[in-house]
Amino acid sequence: MGPRPNLLTRRVAGVASTTLALLLSTAAVGVVPAASAFSAAPSGACAEPADSHANARVKPGAGAKHEPNELTAKQVRERDADLAASLRERANFRAGAGATTLATVTIPVVVHVIQRDSTRAGGNIPDSMITSQISVLNQAYAGGTGGAATAFAFRLDKINRVTNPSWYPIVDGSSAERSMKSSLRVGGKSTLNIYLGELSDDLLGWATFPQRKLSSMDGVVVLNESLPGGSATNYNQGDTGTHEIGHWLNLYHTFQGGCGGSGDGVSDTPAEASPAYQCPTGRDTCSATGLDPITNFMDYTYDSCMYQFTPGQASRMLTAWNAYRAA
Ligand SMILES: [Zn+2]
After folding, report:
1. Which residues contact 37 (CB under 8 A, 6 or more apart)?
2. Which residues contact 229 (CB under 8 A, 6 or more apart)?
3. If you measure from the C-alpha of residue 251 to the centroid of ligand 1, how many angstroms do you get, rounded to a whole number?
4. pTM, 2 dp
5. Which residues are identified as catalytic?
6. What is the Å distance from ligand 1's center to 57 Cα?
């Protein structure tokens, strides 16, 4: 690996977290998934999948010591079992009601812009960056950047600006995050709530997975300067949003589970031993067929390097939508 790229320096809040995070790391060197650090689910989490928290995206290096982003094998098993149970329930319901599953979905989006004050450094990003972000999402999920077309489109319903210094930066797993989300979240399971702000721990973002019971924590948190035209060098084309919403629609990282087992639960994403950063050429970390899926939105590469979902991921997202989020 080359020298550490000149990344944004941000305060490390040192928060223990159960979320999966997309860290802004510099290089994969020395990044050891600290699974044990977050395999201990918070007490009371047994009734719900342990990962009701999120998946995140991170820059290389920074924050890797407590990378909250990967699921343990146990968490994956719990999620898989829950999905199967939810699908059975829905199938029974449909058999009675004669309903059909959805093939295309337009997701209503509410964006909460968290600000410390009225300055750009304090989180006051322009509306134009938000509308650009929605365009990036629509392109990505339609296959317009080269990947599979998914069922999903996004419609911006509202921009909600909130000035509250105690919520800025947004600290992953904090009581302030809970307070923020319980105060601001709107809509049902099918409404996507996006929270924008400066983030703790060098994170680019994090998201919750779908759950049968709607939680006030449900939603996606994204670094404000990762939106198109933002200042997060190499991560400012809007693909953090694309990635986090992938988690919100039940996608795992392409490196989930490493080379063994069921990996990310998607058959057409080649297995990958660990996250890929920057934009490596010819990376092939598992003996199974296929180069590492470094251009997939669910890896950790630069925005300029990731541009696709696979048909298998599109299918997994639609299945999850019909199991969890459809009305
Ligand atoms: Zn992630």
Report:
1. 16, 66
2. 128, 129, 132, 236
3. 9
4. 0.82
5. 244
6. 4
